[in-house]
C-alpha cells in the first residue's frame, strides 16, 4: 500500500467521481474512501478545507479541489495525456471549467427542486453519512438533510426567476451533447480529455437522480453510453482534429459556454469586485439574478492562466471570438 493514493470522496459528489474516473483512466493505484464519520479523523488530519475530494499522496500530502488534483497528477502521470493538441486542447480546458461551474447549476438545482429527487437524494446522503443508523435514526437524518439542502439551491443561482432557465438549458445541452457524441466515444475523439472529466462528473450525478436520469435514459442514448464508458474510461484511439470536432462541438460552445456561462462568469466577477450582495445579467433573452459565487473568481483566474499559456493563439483566438469567449479570457 506504500504507493497507493487515497481518495476521500462520495458517490454523490460530482467532483469526487470526476477524480476517481481520472485515476482509473491513468491506472494510478488508489483506494476510494467514503468520507463519513468513520473516516473523518483521517480526513481532518489532511484536509485544509471542508470539501471533497481529498487526495492523500503516498507521502502523506493532502491535495484538494478536483481541478488542481488532476493538474498535479497529470505532471506525475503524463501518459496517456488528457490534453489534445492545438485549439482542441484549450477548448477542452474551457469545457472542464464550464462543467465544474455551470454544469453544477443543473445538477444541484434538479437534485433539490422536486419532491421525488429530494427524497431520493436525502435518503442516499443519510445512508452514506450513517450506514449503521436505525430506521428511526435514518428517517430523522434524511428529513434533516432534505430540509437543509432544499434551502441551499440559491447557492448555485437557482431561484424562482432562474429555475426555468436552468431546466431549459439542461435539456438543450442534453440534445446538443447527444448529437456530438453520436459519432465518437468521448468529447474529443477516441480517448477521454480533460473536458470529459469535468463535464462527466456533473452528468453522472444527473443520471443517478430520478428526474434527470429519466430525461437522459429516455432521450439521449449516446450520452448514456458516454456516461457508462466514463466510469472506467480507456484510450480507444487518438484525439480528433479540431476541424472534425467543430461541426457538433461549436453549437455547444456558442450557445452554452459563450451564450450563458461566459456572460454569467463576468457578471459574477464584477459583483465580487464591487462587493454587491446580488447581481443581474442578461443571458440571451432572459435575465439571470443571483448572489455572487466567491470560489468561481479563483477558478476563472486559473482558466485565464491556461489561456495565457496557450501556444497557438493565431488559430485559437478566432475560435474563441466566434463563440463569444475571447475578451473574457484576455481580461
How would you describe the shape? globular
Helix content: 55-70%
Helical element count?
Answer: 14
Strand residue content: 5-15%
Instruction: Report the strand count.
Output: 6
**Radius of gyration of CA atoms, rounded to a whole number:** 20 Å
Largest sheet: 4 strands, mixed
Instruction: Please identify the structural class as seen in this structure.
Output: alpha+beta
In the sheet with the most strands, the strands line up as 2-1-3-4
End-to-end separation in angstroms reads: 46 Å
Low-confidence stretches are none
Q: Overall pLDDT, averaged? A: 96
Helix and strand run: EHEHEEHHHHHHHHHEEHHH
Oligomeric status: single chain
Integer count of domains:
2
Written account of the structure:
The protein has 331 residues and is α+β, with helices and mostly antiparallel strands. The protein has two domains: 5-76, Glutaredoxin (3-Layer(aba) Sandwich); 87-110 and 156-330, no CATH class. Helices cover 62% and strands 8% of the residues. The chain has 14 helices and six strands. It has a four-stranded mixed sheet, with helices on one face. A two-stranded antiparallel ribbon has the order 5-6. The longest helix is centred in the last third of the chain and has 33 residues, at 242-274. The radius of gyration is 20 Å and the shape is globular. The mean pLDDT is 96.
Amino acid at each position: 500500500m506504500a504507493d497507493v493514493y487515497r481518495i476521500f470522496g462520495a458517490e454523490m459528489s460530482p467532483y469526487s467521481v470526476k477524480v476517481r474516473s481520472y485515476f482509473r483512466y491513468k491506472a494510478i493505484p488508489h483506494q476510494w474512501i467514503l468520507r463519513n464519520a468513520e473516516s473523518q479523523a483521517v480526513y481532518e488530519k489532511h484536509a485544509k478545507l471542508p470539501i471533497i475530494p481529498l487526495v492523500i499522496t503516498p507521502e502523506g500530502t493532502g491535495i484538494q479541489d478536483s481541478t488542481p488534483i488532476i493538474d498535479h497528477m497529470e505532471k506525475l502521470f503524463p501518459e496517456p495525456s488528457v490534453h489534445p493538441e492545438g485549439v482542441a486542447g484549450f477548448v477542452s480546458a474551457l469545457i472542464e471549467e464550464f462543467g465544474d461551474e455551470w454544469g453544477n447549476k443543473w445538477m444541484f438545482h434538479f437534485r433539490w427542486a422536486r419532491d421525488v429527487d429530494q427524497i431520493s437524494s436525502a435518503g442516499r446522503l443519510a445512508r452514506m453519512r450513517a450506514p449503521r443508523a436505525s430506521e428511526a435514526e435514518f428517517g430523522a437524518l434524511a428529513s434533516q438533510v432534505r430540509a437543509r439542502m432544499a434551502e441551499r439551491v440559491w447557492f448555485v443561482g437557482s431561484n424562482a426567476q432562474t429555475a426555468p432557465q436552468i431546466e431549459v438549458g439542461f435539456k438543450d445541452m442534453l440534445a446538443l451533447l447527444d448529437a456530438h457524441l453520436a459519432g465518437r466515444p468521448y468529447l474529443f475523439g477516441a480517448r477521454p480529455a480533460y473536458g470529459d472529466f469535468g463535464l462527466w462528473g456533473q452528468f453522472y450525478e444527473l443520471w443517478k437522480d430520478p428526474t434527470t436520469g429519466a430525461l437522459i435514459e429516455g432521450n439521449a442514448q449516446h450520452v448514456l453510453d458516454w456516461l457508462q464508458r466514463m466510469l472506467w474510461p480507456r484510450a480507444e484511439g487518438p484525439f480528433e482534429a479540431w476541424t472534425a470536432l467543430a461541426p457538433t462541438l461549436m453549437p455547444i460552445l456558442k450557445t452554452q459556454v459563450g451564450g450563458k456561462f461566459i456572460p454569467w462568469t463576468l457578471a459574477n466577477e464584477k459583483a465580487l469586485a464591487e462587493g454587491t450582495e446580488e447581481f443581474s445579467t442578461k443571458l440571451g433573452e432572459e435575465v439571470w439574478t443571483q448572489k455572487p459565487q466567491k470560489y468561481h473568481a479563483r477558478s476563472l483566474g486559473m482558466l485565464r492562466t491556461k489561456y495565457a499559456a496557450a501556444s497557438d493563439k493565431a488559430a485559437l483566438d478566432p475560435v474563441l471570438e466566434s463563440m463569444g469567449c475571447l475578451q473574457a479570457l484576455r481580461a
